[in-house]
Amino acid sequence: SLKWTRKQLHVGKGIFNKHCANPWNAFVRQKMNEYNEGRRVGDRLKLPVFITEHHTQLTSSYFRLTVAEKSHLQDNVETLHQSRIKVTHASPKALQKDVNATFNAMQTE
Fold first, then answer.
1. Residue pLDDT, tens place only, 30-49
2. Of 4, 29, 39, 54, which alpha carbon lies 20 to 30 A from 104's?
3. Residue (of 25, 62, 28, 60) closest to 45 by Cα position
4. What does the alpha-carbon distance between residue 21 and residue 81 come to, in Å, rounded to a whole number?
């Protein structure tokens, strides 16, 4: 069906559901990356552990941010999302149909 074909062509995450970047998530991710910078792979904190250990410091720092700083964080996340290359994965059946359609088009020419 047409709906199935469109979904197969746009399998990438976020194609249909466009969400705005969340400044809190960007802020926490930035602070976690600053904390983990220079640490070895086994010594780095994961996101849930980092939030539980530094919850009060994170919330107080976040509430001190101005609206301009929050929008700057949000803009940074949106530019990061736009710079990523979206890869579409086709199912084997869809790929086979595409190849067959291409060969049929070549035979009719």
1. 999 999 999 998 889 999 99
2. 4
3. 28
4. 9
